[in-house]
Specification:
mainly beta, four-stranded antiparallel beta sheet, globular, PQQ_rpt_dom, Outer membrane protein assembly factor BamB, Quinoprotein_ADH-like_sf
Length: about 375
């Protein structure tokens, strides 16, 4: 485990490492290529959410439940909006450094702070229900099944809190890697299992009632001489679809696991710190290099690969209609064809960049820019 400042520096170093391609001179981000626009995105509404991601490397992602979208900025401004028109339902200022946001479910909005706190708000009113202290900073949204709230901390611990009171029920200790990326993935919580990716390249599933491990699966094996070479964090979060758990590691693999047993269903070499999307029997991954790849789940072979956004520090991808949406460091939202990965549309959202995964609900895509711009778009 390394300290906050060193971890932040490491994040930048790793981004640079992805840029260098073993060259002595760092290559610049790829210039945007021209293409024939086939899809036009139309803005439905836009709102400012405080200071957004702030000046440090935060990964605050909004959350959608029913007809509302919830978002938080780095200073603790939390907002509930009507997701169809952007009208503000409630706004609360926690006046705390939020670093893990937003988790939502079962009447709660859940956030984590740099000071190692978990805060639960009433999703209808924004009123604070409880605050709990955990072992270290929380860099990803807490998750809940209505009975237990599960939090993953930067020191690779998983903590189960009582959803009604915030009291600690259990804690799972894990030994983090010597060097880790700045961040963690958000856990996934079902009625029975709490599943999380660790900095060691492992995925762990715990019994939600007592925190006892049910299964453990290694997705990536640290390789290389230096500690930097051996970083295999699972930072992009996990994706659950049906009974399959999708996971991507930095300098490791992208894989599909059976949720109940942890058995590897398929895997493929990859390096990603943002995560994957899934649709039409395919998996889409934003590589650390800036390449976006479409993978056939059945054969684990690449359907297509788009390397025209090299070193553009891409967000996690998201499936939107027949397309794959991904953001970049200059604030462009790119739409790629799910069939062959070609560019079909592009829209600039926030000149400070798009780091958070886009969210899709129905015919609308929601994009949270680094400066705090939350925008809802549809296909024209």
């Amino acid at each position: 485990m390394i300290g906050w400042k060193h971890a932040a520096v490491l994040t930048l170093a790793i981004l640079a490492a992805g840029c260098s391609s073993n060259s002595k001179k760092e290559l610049p981000p790829a210039e945007l290529t021209k293409f024939t626009e086939e899809v036009v995105l139309q803005k439905q509404w836009s709102r400012s959410i405080g200071d957004g991601q702030g000046e440090t490397y935060n990964m605050l992602v909004p959350a959608i439940e029913n007809d509302r979208i919830y978002a938080s900025d780095v200073t603790g401004v939390v907002m509930s909006l009507n997701r169809m028109n952007g009208d503000v339902i409630w706004k609360k200022d926690l006046e705390k450094p939020v670093s893990g946001a937003v988790g939502v479910g079962y009447g709660m909005v859940l956030l984590g702070t740099l000071k190692g706190e978990v805060i639960a708000l009433d999703s209808s009113t924004g009123e604070q229900k409880w605050t709990a202290r955990v072992t270290s900073e929380v860099l990803a949204p807490p998750a809940t099944n209505g009975d237990v709230v599960v939090v993953q901390t930067q020191d690779d611990r998983l903590i189960g809190l009582d959803a009604a009171t915030g009291d600690r029920r259990w804690i799972y200790d894990s030994t983090p890697a010597v060097l880790t990326l700045r961040g963690t993935g958000a856990p996934i919580v079902t009625n029975r299992l709490a599943v999380a990716g660790l900095s060691s390249g492992k995925v762990i599933a715990l019994d939600t009632s007592n925190g006892v491990p049910v299964w453990e699966q290694r997705v990536a094996i640290p390789q290389g001489r230096s500690e930097l070479d051996r970083v295999v964090d699972i930072d992009g979060g996990l994706l659950l679809s049906g009974g399959t758990l999708y996971v991507a590691t930095y300098q490791g693999r992208v894989a599909g696991l059976d949720l109940e047993s942890g058995r590897v269903l398929w895997q493929r070499d990859a390096s990603s710190y943002t995560g994957v999307a899934q649709g039409f029997g395919n998996v889409y991954v934003s590589e650390a290099s800036g390449t976006v790849e479409g993978i056939d789940e059945r054969s684990s072979s690449a359907l297509w690969s788009n390397d025209q956004m090299a070193r553009r520090q891409l967000s996690a991808p998201e499936v939107f209609s027949s397309y794959v949406a991904v953001g970049d460091f200059e604030g462009y939202l790119h739409l790629l064809s799910q069939v062959d990965g070609r560019f079909v549309g592009r829209e600039r959202i926030d000149s400070d960049g798009l780091r958070a995964r886009p969210l899709v609900e129905g015919n609308m895509i929601y994009v949270f820019g680094n400066s705090g711009t939350l925008e809802a778009l549809t296909i024209k």
